[in-house]
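Aim 2, interim progress. The first record below pairs a target sequence with its structure tokens.
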Amino acid sequence: MPSQALLAAIVVALLAVPRKYAPAAFFAGILLVPMGEGINVGVNLQPLRIVIIFGLLRALMRGEFPAAFPLKADKLMLGMVPILVFASFFYPSVSGALIYRLGSSLDMIGTYYLFRCWCWTIEELEFLAASLLLLFIPIAVMMTFERASGRDFWALLGGVPLSDAVRQGKFRARGPFANPITGGTIAAVCVPYAVLLWRQRPRLAKFGLFAIALIVFDCASSGPILTVAAGLGALYFWKYRR
């Protein structure tokens, strides 16, 4: 499958590139490969989980460990795992819920730990933000064509349907994501990253913000719009934090 070949190439890059570029390879794996593609080995290994596993393998092989470990935030993140697992016993299908919760724990803890390994300084955070904004630009272009045509380009890679959902006579672009709401929300939560780069890399920040706006528009969902509003509101109230 083309998507699995793309994922394999991204995994090789993730293992090979210097630490500075590891977040860019990680983001490419979760943003460019449709989430419906993956490997089923008794449990469903989605692209996100595959890049997390190989990211953890890379960190172990290269001795990349978090700075100042453990922090209070580290303990809070780890403390969520037993809560998620305990909640599984309140579902009708305990085994199914338990497997799902363990997978969610891997997604959450694995991603958090990797970026504790890779992102130590404000400069590394800025590079992380720049990587995300650059990836959003081609995604926004393809989702705009998708909204106009009703055909999802990422269906050629597999993992997502060819035809789009329709709301009030208009197509809702999905891109490589599971559904339009997920795609729009992922872009919307990254608005503060564009603001972070506004002075250092103004051109990239503007292009990235425009790409985010296109993705939010193309998904035709109110949730991402509210997410953008929440992000801008948080930025406004930042000056009052003390």
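The second target in this work package is listed in the same format:
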Amino acid sequence: MATHFRSTGKKCVVIGGSGFLGQHMVEKLLDKGYSVNVFDIQKRFDHDRVQFFLGDLCNKEALLPALQDVSVAFHCASPAPSSDNKELFYKVNFMGTKAVIEACKEAGVQKLVLTSSASVVFEGTDIKNGTEDLPYAKKPIDYYTETKILQEKEVLSANDPDNNFFTTAIRPHGIFGPRDPQLVPILIQAAKSGKMKFIIGDGKNLVDFTYVENVVHGHILAAEHLRKDSPVCGKAFHITNDEPIPFWAFMSRILTGLNYDAPKYYIPYWLAYYLALFLSLVLWLLSPLIIIKPTFTPMRVALAGTFHYYSCERAKRDMGYKPVVSLDGFYFYLIVLIILTSLHEH
């Protein structure tokens, strides 16, 4: 039975609010006048205007206190994509999301906005200006993406306007920004170890990278447009910077902005891919004797050497989305400076 329903729309919960995206979401929601709860498995920051609830999101009973009197739930909790823990991915991304949906319905939460991923349609081959009408990947690039597909399907199918429960999924791609624990730190580590000398392919493949503020903006817009008869209900939306950039140009700009050398030697895509495939086979054959986690994999080669950028036209049309931060010129170098400052602080 639904309880404690509030219709003001100004009280929300950020599930996964201690994470990279979650913290930025909390900050922007507070700026916009929302009352914010955070539900997470750990508390990574303090804020006198935020109420924290600690627990396992797979436990519906643990979730319920964080959802009382809440109108909007933002669900951005997930293990890091770089993890290789299949059991954890399935537990958190799929089973945990089922628990979130059940708890939202029981608590009378009206709106659920999921952080999905544009990679749910990516199979390692070129995607140019891909729309949300592309089918889900039949062969996802990794287990993280496989469980994100399951998660997104679960959330979108839960959309139930007749019972005042509205859902949507936001599909960002290549999120980066201050306090980023993945893209930039991994890039810096690779540069320090001498692994950023080669450009895979011809260096012209366009990719979407998305500044974290734009991702947050897309989530909040989606929540504000979720209502009966809205085209946002039960749909997925690509949210990017809407300015595809050559993958290796982006990497080079980040590296040079942080005083590292840009890659300058070219290796054909097919050669890199089959070398990575051969290495994966060798490591699989050796796995009964020794476990080695490779960093040079076919999936990473595909991500670095193919086109994969996505259309934001649906988000523009249905909820008025427009990126708030651009990658062009001065702004890009300002972003690099902000990232560098955040790395020193953390």
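The chain has a mean pLDDT of 90. This observation will shape the mutagenesis plan for the next reporting period.
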